[in-house]
Design goal:
Elements: E1 24-25, E2 31-35, E3 41-44, E4 50-57, E5 60-66, E6 74-78, E7 84-87, E8 93-98, E9 101-105, E10 113-118, E11 127-130, E12 135-141, E13 144-151, E14 154-160, H1 165-168, E15 175-178, E16 188-190, H2 192-215, H3 225-228, H4 232-238, H5 241-249, H6 261-268, H7 296-302, H8 317-320, E17 342-344, H9 349-355, E18 361-367, H10 372-392, E19 406-412, H11 418-423, E20 430-435, E21 438-443, H12 453-468, H13 485-505
Parallel strand pairs: 17-19, 18-19
Antiparallel strand pairs: 1-2, 2-3, 3-4, 4-5, 5-6, 6-7, 7-8, 8-9, 9-10, 11-12, 12-13, 13-14, 15-16, 18-20, 20-21
Length: about 500
């Protein structure tokens, strides 16, 4: 059912009501709810008083619920951004909602805050209560508010709050594909018509936000009757429910929203460039002829998958001739000078030492991976091992050159207590040097006081010379509580000179 256009008080043509939903009537033909051309509506009590005003402004709705009394007490008022309040029967606030959060009060007089929420701590469960015996109310958040008005067996539900299209809308929703090849590979291809329509819708929402700011000069997010009184043109509307009803009848609340594509074109004119990025492109919608994407064949090629196999591209002559890592003499022939030490096990320890060449000195480095001192010295030992293996051909992995004078080996003290119990080792790293399976040196210092690479080589030369002339440590050699090779040598010197000192004393 549609109503014909009606004339206003001055004889001017009113808003065209064709296509508007037919009103719902009570049993006695009194209106229960009337609908507006823009999707809004007005509900009434059986006695004719206004019960609900659900009116569209901009891109959202202003919602007001009124009590069935002569004063027309406002029980609920919310703006298109979900900001507003719900009240007790006496008009005192019961629930308030702002952009930053809100509160819920449990009693109409002397009540306390039962619940509060904010943007960072939203409500876990929605709040539900009855504004009156005819109006049910539910609040989940600013984006979802629900109410139901029931009277004489008739019922109508309302869903309102902040529209989230502008917040959720993104360029991904306007994408028709992804560029699969070329320097723009991976970028989205957008439908410009959809972008423009979204911009128009967002503009309408911003205009609605501007209207709310005019209504709310103090930058408050809650619409009340007191705030509405700030605008002179609204004073007649909120003075009484009868005045509000009269303004609805006169068409003062009809607001036209331009969001159709044709209206957008008429408003912005045909001269503005627009481009419909679609495989089934309408030739009439193409603009900007110089853009490659306006050609359907070019667009089709852009959407094709890349045939690149992922293989490494050959280096150009310019890159090869450049300095740094792309020098032409750089290749896979490079090897690190470091070489890992061969690790000995307790079960084959003595057998391996005896199997070594008789002229080659075995240097066993007693290590523990958890000890920082050992972790610092191990790279140095690996460097010496690499130099020794490359230069002399020995060292546990050399080439075909002459036999190396020594071989660096490793024993993990964390894995076995074999050497600890055998030599009473209490300091790490510890160096044990053997020739022909016999111990020729034992100490935690090298060359008398050092632990560096040169100290190791000098200690190897000295120990090898001593062992070749038969200077070995005893077979049952063990460290004392604070003993090492330096202390042992000093003790031997004292023992050899004590008899001479005693003779001289006599």
């Amino acid at each position: 059912m549609s109503a014909p256009p009606s004339a206003g008080p001055s004889g001017e043509s009113a808003v065209d009501l064709s296509g508007v939903k037919a009103p719902i009537l009570y049993a006695g033909s009194a209106p229960f709810i009337k609908f507006s051309p823009d999707g809004g509506s007005f509900a009434f009590y059986p006695n004719g008083r206004m019960a609900v005003a659900f009116e569209k402004m901009g891109a959202g709705y202003y919602v007001f619920f009124y009590a069935d009394n002569a004063e027309g007490t406002t029980l609920c008022a919310f703006d298109p951004f979900g900001c507003g309040y719900a009240a007790f029967a006496n008009g005192k606030p019961r629930l308030t909602s702002r952009k930053q959060g809100g509160v819920y009060i449990d009693q109409p007089t002397g009540g306390k805050i039962a619940k509060s929420w904010s943007t960072s701590k939203p409500l876990r469960e929605p709040i539900e209560f009855d504004l009156t015996d005819r109006i049910a109310f539910k609040f989940k958040n600013r984006t979802y508010i629900w109410a139901r008005f029931t009277s004489q067996g008739l019922s109508h539900e309302y869903e309102f709050g902040e529209l989230q299209q502008m917040a959720e809308d993104s360029y991904l929703s306007k994408s028709i594909g992804t560029v699969q090849m070329g320097p723009e590979r991976g970028k989205k291809i957008l439908d410009i018509d959809k972008v423009r329509l979204a911009q128009a819708a967002n503009k309408a929402r911003r205009e609605a936000a501007g209207g709310m700011k005019e209504l709310d000069g103090a930058k408050k997010g809650m619409i009340t009757q007191d705030y509405m009184q700030l605008l002179p043109e609204l004073k007649s509307v909120v003075a009484s429910t009868e005045a509000l009803q009269a303004s609805v009848a006169s068409g003062a609340w009809n607001v036209e929203v331009f969001n159709a594509k044709q209206t957008l074109i008429d408003t912005l004119s045909e001269q503005l460039p627009t481009l419909s990025m679609s495989l089934e492109m309408d030739p009439g919608s193409k603009r900007l002829e110089g853009m490659p994407a306006t050609d359907p064949e070019t667009l089709k090629k852009m959407l094709e998958a890349s045939k690149f196999d992922g293989a490494v591209l050959p280096l150009s002559a310019a890159i090869k001739g450049a300095s740094g890592r792309f020098r032409p003499d750089h290749g896979n022939h490079y090897r690190t000078p470091r070489k890992r030490l061969r690790e000995l096990k307790s079960t084959t320890y003595d057998d391996y030492l005896k199997s070594m060449p008789k002229e080659q000195l075995a240097v066993v480095c007693c290590m523990a991976g958890w000890l920082p001192q050992c972790r610092r010295v191990e790279p140095v030992l690996e460097l010496v091992n690499g130099e020794n293996a490359g230069g002399g051909g020995g060292g546990g992995g050399g080439g075909g050159g002459a036999q190396a004078r020594f071989q660096l080996l490793k024993f993990d003290m964390s894995e076995s207590r074999y050497l600890k119990e055998r030599y009473n080792i209490s300091t790490l790293p510890m160096y044990l040097m053997y020739l022909g399976g016999k111990l020729a040196y034992a100490g935690s210092t090298l060359n008398g006081f050092g632990t560096g690479k040169d100290d190791l080589k000098k200690q190897v030369d000295k120990t090898l010379a001593d062992a070749q002339r038969g200077a070995f440590l005893p077979d049952d050699y063990k460290f004392g509580a604070t003993d090492n090779n330096l202390v042992s040598s000093f003790g031997a010197t004292l023992n050899s000179t004590s008899t001479k000192l005693a003779t001289a004393a006599r």
